[in-house]
Design brief:
By secondary structure, the chain is of the alpha/beta class. Helix content is 27%, strand content 32%. The strands form four sheets. The chain has a seven-stranded mixed beta sheet with strand order 3-2-1-4-5-7-6, sandwiched between helices. Strands 12-11-10-13-16-18-17 form a seven-stranded mixed beta sheet. A two-stranded antiparallel ribbon has the order 8-9.
């Protein structure tokens, strides 16, 4: 069995961990923490599926106070990675460890860290790098939030700094909506704002798995008809069903395309709708959603789109 970079580093006693808790920032659900005693580890993760996976294994959720060691697992977003390192420097009293893949930019992060702090050691293995250093000051890294069309976005959210063209297409094609509506995978709120422009909407649930996006939603959407819910869109359920669901479902996990992820959103939508309810969906043209939609709904119709995207209305969910 191949050992992770963290396991190899700790087995070699470099770095030497201070006594006490180890806070781990944004580890994917499949990240290898076997080198650490679970009782010492606390997980800080804003993505609900990964948060729930670690909680189900018995790992504690991170607190807000300082801890001796903070481990940063490098995400895809370069700006978010820098924010996480800065956060680790504020939280750690003894040691900061950074671990990531080359494809996620760990080498450039390593060079940036060496520019302002003495890196104590590094280990290169399995197309990635792990390095560590003592917390000493905070780097002067400019990773500001970005604004688009009056909406706040921030590093680590989907479609940071721009309106996703599929969401824009769906927002402009929605028919008059009324009653209870759900935005499944609401992101930072562009589609939600379009839904709330319909005066017949009495309630909107903005269902989003990424806590960073929820932070933006809190600022971007102030309509009293709307509430934000931190939930996994593939598992979300509620006793009160909706008259309509709108969604621009994800179809990637990290760098891997996963059409089944989007298909799970479609199944959730069918489960959430009233018998007379409708789903309004935008998807990339190449995604194979129609077969699954016809299994879930009695009526499926393409209602618009362009070369890149298709707009679909699905009605009368099958029970």
């Amino acid at each position: 069995m191949a050992h992770s970079r963290l396991t190899l580093a700790l087995d070699s006693a470099a770095p030497v961990l201070p006594d006490g808790p180890v806070r781990v920032l944004r580890p994917p659900a499949d990240y290898d923490l076997s080198a650490l005693e679970p009782a010492r580890v606390e997980i800080d993760h804003g993505f609900k599926p990964d948060h729930d996976a670690w909680a189900a294994r018995g790992y504690a959720t991170a607190g807000s106070g300082p801890v001796p060691t903070v481990l940063v697992v490098v995400p895809r977003s370069k700006a978010l990675a820098r924010r996480l390192v800065a956060h680790a420097l504020h939280a750690a009293t003894g040691l900061v460890i950074v671990d990531g893949a080359r494809t996620d930019g760990v080498d450039s992060l390593y060079k940036a860290c060496r520019g302002w702090a003495p890196v104590a050691g590094t280990l290169i293995k399995a197309h990635g790098r792990l390095f560590w250093f003592a917390p000493d000051g905070v780097p002067d890294w400019d990773t500001p939030d970005r604004w688009v069309d009056g909406f706040r976005t921030q590093p680590g959210v989907f479609s940071e700094g721009k309106v996703d063209p599929g969401s824009r297409l769906l927002a402009g094609a929605l028919p008059p909506l009324s009653g209870r509506v759900a935005d499944l995978g609401a992101g930072w709120g562009y589609l939600s704002a379009a839904v709330l422009a319909h005066p017949g909407v009495t309630h909107l649930d903005m269902i989003e798995a990424e806590a960073l996006a929820l932070d933006c939603l809190a600022e971007n959407i102030s309509d009293p008809r709307a509430r934000a819910l931190w939930a996994d869109g593939t598992r979300f359920t509620t006793e009160t069903r909706y008259d309509a669901v709108v969604t621009n479902p994800p179809f990637h996990s990290a760098r891997k395309g996963l059409p089944e992820l989007g298909q799970a959103f479609l199944a959730t939508a069918a489960r959430l709708l009233k018998p007379s309810g409708s789903l309004y969906l935008v998807a990339n043209r190449h995604l194979p959603y129609e077969t699954r939609l016809r299994e879930l709904f009695a009526q499926v119709q393409e209602v618009g789109g362009d070369r890149a995207f298709k707009l679909i209305r699905a009605a009368r969910p099958r029970r």
